[in-house]
Amino acid sequence: MITTDPIADMLTRMRNALSAKHQNVSIPVSKTKVAIAELLLKEGYIASYKVEGEGIKSNIVIDFKDNGVIKGLRRISKPGLRIYAGVEDLPRVINGLGIAIISTNKGIITDREARKLGVGGEVLAYVW
Length: 128
Prior knowledge:
Mean pLDDT: 95
Distance between the termini: 29 Å
Oligomer: single chain
Shape: globular
Structural class: alpha+beta
Order of helices and strands: HEHEEEEEEHE
Strand content: 25-35%
Largest sheet: 5 strands, antiparallel
Helix content: 25-40%
Radius of gyration: 14 Å
Number of strands: 8
């Protein structure tokens, strides 16, 4: 199945799996999705992830933490309306309790890291 917004598809699959109280979710793999999963793992929102399969049939399997750390996921920048922010305009999610996922020339990083590095970029999603 071809999606026009693969990041929104990833977030929706995660949101649906969390609401159904699943322990993990399987998502078609891409470099951007792996980078987002790595960021969520580093920030402590998920327990682990792994890439299964090879080639076009490969999937990324994300294992959630037992205590339900992720309360919300929201896509911000969409293919029809890209949202960019400079370093001084980077959003704070729930006054710093959540993270904003930013795509920069330094890679996909959190809003805190982007402020530290002094770079802006495309605001992909909020996680809290």
